[in-house]
Amino acid sequence: MSNILGFPRIGKNRELKKALESFWGGKSKEKELEQVAQDLRAKHWELQKDLDFVCVNDFSLYDNVLDLAYALDAKPKRFKGLSGLEGYFAMARGYKDGVACEMTKWFNTNYHYVVPELSNEDTYKADASKIIQQYQEALSLGYTPKIQLIGIFTFFALSKIIDGEEKEIFKKLKKAYLELIEQISILNNVVIEFSEPIFAKGFNEKSPNLQCVYNSDTIEYIYNEISKKGIKVIVSTFFEHSCELTEVLLKTDIYGIGLDFIYGEKNKQSLKALAKSNKVLYAGVIDGRNIWIADLESKLALLDSINSFIPKERIVLSSSCSLLHLPFSKEGEDKIEDEILSWLSFAKEKIEELKTLELAFRGEKKDFKKALEENAKINCSRKNSTKTNNQKIRNRVKQNTLKQRNMPFKERLKLQKNFLNLPILPTTTIGSFPQTPELRALRLDYKKGNIDKATYEKGIKDYIKDCVAFQESIGIDVLVHGEPERNDMVEYFGEQLEGFAFSSNAWVQSYGSRCVKPPIIYGDVERKNPMTIDWITFAQSLTKKAMKGMLTGPVTILNWSFVRDDIPRKAVCEQISLAIADEINDLQKAGISIIQVDEAAFKEGYPLREENIKEYEKWALDCFKTSTAIASPQTQIHTHMCYSDFNDIIKTIEALDADVISIETARSGNELLKVFKKIGYTHEVGPGVYDIHSPRIPNIEEIQKQIQALLEVLPKEQLWINPDCGLKTRKWEEVKPSLKNMVEAVKAIRNS
Question: Which of 160, 234, 483, 514 could form a disulfide with 256 if both were Cys (CB 3.0 to 4.6 A apart)?
Fold first, then answer.
């Protein structure tokens, strides 16, 4: 018996991305988009046909959390008049004057979900038609389907309460959720796997939504009610252990419990209690989040230890979580060296691993001796390869003593103010400008050898010239070069660092149609040569204004990569931090006075369990400070953080000791900023004044209102004005008027 919790939906060749962008651009119809989605589901089910079930409702046109909100009619008031795909995509992307719902990270991954908005004014009603349609679609193709559904506690914990009492809203939501299950229960012999990753946080989860309902009685009641509907219920948790909640689930009438034994080793503590129950264990023994080939011998040893408590007939082998977080397949990868490629396993290969492991676990191991020997040979090759071991780099980390700035912030600030001489409310952008089709084609032609280096560099310089000229023409105070030479904020740096490998097609969905191709950190990391100097100094030569040097921080490079699992993540991050420190030193020597070290993914690396947070915070903080410690007092260090709830990490942000931090706040007003005021944050802050994830062009008046709202929280001397995030995904016809309006809004406030 074997199982997965979901499959990547973007497609082997990003078919869904292309179909979505064609539909949004008005180049195709809804029927064509739906046909692409249906074709992809069929292809993905074919790969799952030898498992116990194929996953249904793991596929989404944008996001599964949004899907559930839509199925429960949990639409914000501003979108109530919209229906169908128009309403669905409006919640994700915005619509006319309707600002899109917030997005934030799905637990500690790089996947973004659309945050549901719940209000006491709303009435919720269930519509399971889309789920039932996919279920019947799978049946018609001859597959045995299992429905994947986000559990009500996870959904409620991740939602944003707009108004009203949490307890009353939960009561209304619970009624609609159970109605949804009732509608699904008309299907014969239906199996539903409920994903409850919130349970991995234990009962210490601090979500204000859950405080009034997060207790044993409510959990037991809801899952017993669902079980009464004749459904075979599996409740799965992942990303950590969930021992406390497992105890509760064992008291319910559910059929099975899914536990993550990759990232939740302490789940082994629940085996004794599980053994006394009649529950089936869905054992997460294949890593659903990382791309390294499984060590099958060690997996079999783990399964044998589980089997010492629980009989084989009550153990189902499973992925640790959905395979959504992995690339589709390593087939056709020609950029990665054969030896390194042999160490990898993507979503399709994970299914094959599950099947091999299943057969070896159920049958005689000697029948699979050849497969196990080959697997052991590959793992041994990785362990002993010179590609994975560099003592010189490891010694440099041990010997490093420069770990923090040599002057306190208040003293640095005076030097920087005098040197930079910027106006009140200085304007800037986060770094990237539109990645046009022409720009992508230029980089691709150069990579393929279709054009020479001189032609490529001329194209990049022409783009930089245009970026600088545009910024100067509208009056932006601190300029950026636009990053035309960069494919991705992590991949660009990884390509210039030792110890990184890159794929041709290992795309992973970040949100909607947005995909990333994470670097693969397989060995020890160091910087051989400067990575950004030539382009930044060229851009600086075009203007008398300050030009920001743009770097990606060590923690973000780590968290947005597939990281080797044979040494601690901390050790890998320490190596990266010294490479970034080398680059900062070269930039400031070249006359660059403002350097932005982006830590967009700092928060997402946080462990889910409260008891593990301090350890992560310490080494992540130390790595950022190591990378910036080389900066002279006069060099102004900026950083940027993406969608995050800063309430619980604000002290850590302060300890980063960055001179300026820019944050994404446009979708949440000035609520995030109030956290900075509450603790008396003294460093400078650049809250985003408009949302770059929406194609909407904000007018001058609404940006003025946003700035005025910010000024109610922090003094003007402490504020910078900028968009929410980088502009690479937007079009020039959106960027130019938006930035012009931003600058005009600032001028109006300065003059008022």
Answer: 234
